Amino acid sequence: MEEVFMKCGKAMAHLCSQSLEIRLGLRYKFIHIRDHWGGNSRFVRDAFMDGRIACNHLKNTQQEDAGPKYKAHARTAMRIMVVHGQHFQFSLPDDEDLIWDGDMRWRDSDGLMPSCEEFDWLIDYLTEEVDTAADDETVGDTLLALSAMHGLGSSVKRRSYITALIHCMGPTLPPRVRHAALRAVADAREELASITNKSMPRGVDAALLDEFSYAVLPAVRPNQDQALHDSGPDASFHGQRDCCYLRLVFALAMNDAWRERLTRDGHLERCISLAEDALERRSWVLGCYLAGIFACIDPSDQALPLSPAQERWRTFIREKWRDAHYYMWVGDYVKALPALVTGTRQDLPGWGNSVPNKELAELAKHVHDILESLQKEQAYHVNRGLDQAIFDAALSSVQGLYDDLSRMIDNPNTPQRDNMSLESRSRRSFVGI
Fold first, then answer.
1. Is 394 helix (H, G, I), strand (E, B) or coil?
2. What is the C-alpha to C-alpha distance for residues 39 and 33, in angstroms, rounded to an integer?
3. In whole angstroms, what is the distance from residue 378 CA to residue 391 CA?
4. Angstrom distance (rounded) from CA 110 to CA 321
5. Residue 154 neighbours by CB distance under 10 Å
C-alpha cells in the first residue's frame, strides 16, 4: 500500500513540475497522501537523491549522447523538489510564493538534518549552471533547493557558493533568480552574521564579503535609476521580498563589521526608504525589523525616519506589542519578535525614569500576552515548518524582555543599569533567528 501511495504522490508532483494547469483543490486533496507517508520531507529527500544520482552519472559518463539525458533528469529533480516546497499543497514550480514561503528542508532516514557536505554536489551543479549560462529556470530551482542548507556550504565549497550567489544577485538577471539567491542568502544569515574580521572561515576574506554586501542590494533593487513600479516582483514595495531582505539586514546589523558594510553599500538608505512605506502601510513585520535595525544604528548622525532618539519611538514600540497578538499564528511574524525585542530594549534603561508606571505595566501586559501565546502555540508552529531553533530564539527573547520589565515595575526606584552592550545583550535572543 505504501508503494502505491508513494507512486501516486510522485506522479502528482511530476505533473505539477511540468507547470500543467491543475485545479487548486486537487493539489490540496493530494497533500493528504504526502502527509500520510512522511510529509514533504520524504519526497524532497527522494528528489534530492535523484538529482545527486543524475549528476553523478553526468559527471562519470563516457558516452556523449548520455549527457543530455542525465542533465534532463537532474533538472526534473530540481523542479520536483520545488513542487514540494509548501506544506499545505503541491505547488506549481514558478509560483512566486515558493521563493518567500517555500521550505525545501528535509531529513535523512535517521531523522537528522543533512550536513552541509551533503550539498556539495548541488553547489557544483549550481556553479556549472552559472558558468555555462544555463537556463534561468534551473538556476532558480537550484538556488531554492540550496536554501534548505541554511548556511554557506562546506569549507571546500564555501567560496564557490558565495561567488555563485554574487553572480545570481546581479541586476541583469530575472527576478526569480535574484530573489531565489536573496532567499538563500537570508537563510544563511546566522552564519554570515557570525563572521568577524578576526574569525574568517576557510575560503572567505574581507574582500569577498565586501563584494557580497554590495551585491545584495541589486537583488532587491536591480536598477536604482529606473522608474518605480507599483506591482510585480520588482515593485518599489513588495511585502514578502522586503521582509526577507530586512530579516537579513537585521541579522547582519548585530555585527560591527557588517554594520560598516551596510552603511557603506547603501543598505541603510534602503531601510530608510522602506520605513516610510512600512509606516504608511502599517506593516507590522517590516516595522519590527526596522525597529531592530535602527536600534543598532547610531542615530546621532543619521536622518532616520524612526529612531530611539525620537519621541514617537515609544509609541511605535507600544503599538507593535499591542497589535502583535493578531499575527502570532504566522511563522514569519514570530521570526520578527527578536527584532522587536531589540528595538524595545534600546531605550529600556530610560523607561524606568520617565515612563509612568501604568504605561510600563501596559507594555509588560502585552509582552506577557505574546509570551503566553508562544508557549501555547509552539507545537502548531513547529508542525507548520517553523524551525525549532528559530521558535526558541523568539520565545527566549520575549521571556527575557518580560522578566526585565517585571523587575522595573516591581522596583521602580532602582536605577536601570545598561550593563550590557546592545550587541551582547541582543545576541542571546538573536542566535537562530
1. helix
2. 8
3. 8
4. 40
5. 18
Q: Which amino acid is at 152?
A: L
Residues 95-134 have pLDDT tens digits of 999 999 999 999 887 888 999 999 999 999 999 999 887 7
Q: Where are the alpha helices (DSSP H) in 18-157?
A: 24-29, 31-36, 39-60, 67-83, 97-101, 120-131, 136-146
Q: How many Cα atoms sit within 13 Å of 174 on the Cβ side?
A: 11
Cell 550536513 locates to 115
- Pick the closest to residue 398 from 343, 354, 349 (CA basis): 343
Burial string for 100-114 (b: 16+ CB within 10 Å, else e) reads: bbbbbbbeeeeeeee
* All residues at 6 or more sequence positions from 168 whose CB lies less than 8 Å from its CB, including other chains: 130, 139, 143, 177, 178, 180, 181
> Which region holds residue 133: left if phi is over 0, alpha if psi is between -120 and 50, else beta?
left
Judged on CB neighbours under 10 Å (0-12, 13-18, 19+), 95 is middle
pTM: 0.88
Query: What is the structure's pLDDT at 198?
Result: 86
User: CB neighbours of 46 closer than 8 A, spacing ≥ 6?
Assistant: 10
Cα–Cα distance for residue pair 318/36, rounded to 1 Å: 43
The residue among 98, 159, 94 whose CA lies nearest residue 123 is 159
**Cell digits of residue 312:** 514617537
Cell of 329: 499564528
pLDDT at 418: 44
pLDDT at 431: 37
In terms of residues, how long is the chain?
433
